[in-house]
Amino acid sequence: MAPAKRKADASGAVSSSHAKRIKKEVEKTASSSRPSRISLAAANVPRPTRNSVSGASSPVNNGARGRPSLSNGVGTKSIAKSKLTKKANLSKPSKKNQNSRSAQNSHGNSIFSVSVPDKSINGAAEDNYEDDEKNDEPSYWLMKAEPDSRIEKGKDVKFSIDDLKLAKEPEAWDGVRNHVAKNNMRLMMKGDLAFFYHSNCKIPGIVGTMEIVQEHSVDESAFDPEHPYYDEKSARENPKWCVVHVAFRQKFQDIIKLKELQKYAKEGGVLENMQTLKTTRLSVSKVSKQEWDFIMGLAEVEEESAADAAVANAAAADQGLETEAKVEA
C-alpha cells in the first residue's frame, strides 16, 4: 500500500507546483497591467483649461490631456495609460456633429471627447461684431439721449442731435450709469462711429450719426453732488463710470423710427439680433457692420454734410481763439 501512497503524494506535489506556476503567471499579468509611477506622475499633470473667450485649450506637456469641461458642465473621465504618447492624434469632427471633437492616442483608442458649444451668443450678429474687431474698419455703436426737456435736481438733462450739431467742441457723453453700457464705452476707439438715438420721447428712433473723437476717461459728473447723475458710491480713487467724447457727423432728414427698426427685427430679419432691440433699456449698445450698412441705406442725410459741419466747427473754434487773443492783448 506504500507505493500507492507515494503515488498520491507525487500527484499532489505536481498539482501544487502547477497551481503555484499559474498563480505566478496571474500575478505577473496583473502587475504588468498596472500603471508605473512614471505614468501615474504623468497622469497628474495639471489639467488644461478652456479659455472662455477664444475657446482654445492650454497646451499640456507630452500630449497628455486632462478632463475638459463640456458644454453642459459635466466632465468626462480621463483614462490613465501606462505609456503616454508624445503627441495625441485628434480625430476629425464628423459632418453630422461639427461641434464634437475627440482626441485619440497612438492605438486609436479615444481618450476623451469634448462637445464644443456654439461660440455665437446672439447668433450671426455676434460673428459680425467679432469680424469688425479683426479688421481695420471702425466699430459701430448706438447711443441714446433725451431730446425733450426733463428737470433733474434743478437741471435740464435734455440733449438732442441739434445740440451736438451746434457744439463748438466735442461733447463728453456723461451720465451713463449702467455697467453693460459703460463696458461698451470702454471698448470704443477713436474713429468709431455711432448712431445718435432719441429716446424717452414721443417718437423714438435714430436721427443721425456721430464720431468717437476721444476715448474713455473718468466721468467727473459722478463726483458732483449737484449733478443729476451723481453717484455717492463712486470714489475718485476708484472711479466706476467713464465718458467718451463725440462729434457731430450727420443728421438724417427723417427719423428712422423704432417701429420701423422693429419690422426688420423679426425672425430671419437683418436686424434680428441687434442689441438695442433685444435690450431696449440699454443706452449704449453694439451695432454690427451689416446692421450699420442696412440702417444707413434707410436714411436720407441732410444737405449739410459732416464735412460742412466740421468746417463750421473749426471756424467757430478759430473765432473763439481770436477773441481770446484780443482779450489777452
Fold and architecture overview:
There is one protein chain. The protein is an alpha+beta fold and 329 residues long. Helices cover 33% and strands 20% of the residues. The chain has nine helices and eleven strands. It has helices at residues 2-32, 37-43, 124-134, 161-166, 179-187, 258-263, 275-278, 289-298, 306-328; strands at residues 89-91, 100-104, 110-115, 140-145, 151-152, 155-156, 171-172, 193-198, 205-218, 242-257, 284-287. The strands form three sheets. Strands 7-10-9-8-4-11 form a six-stranded mixed beta sheet, with helices on both faces. It has a three-stranded antiparallel beta sheet with strand order 1-2-3, with no helix packed on it. Strand 2 (100-104) and strand 3 (110-115) form a beta hairpin. The radius of gyration is 35 Å and the shape is globular. The model is unreliable at 1-14, 29-34, 37-45, 47-108, 110-125 and 323-329 (pLDDT under 50).
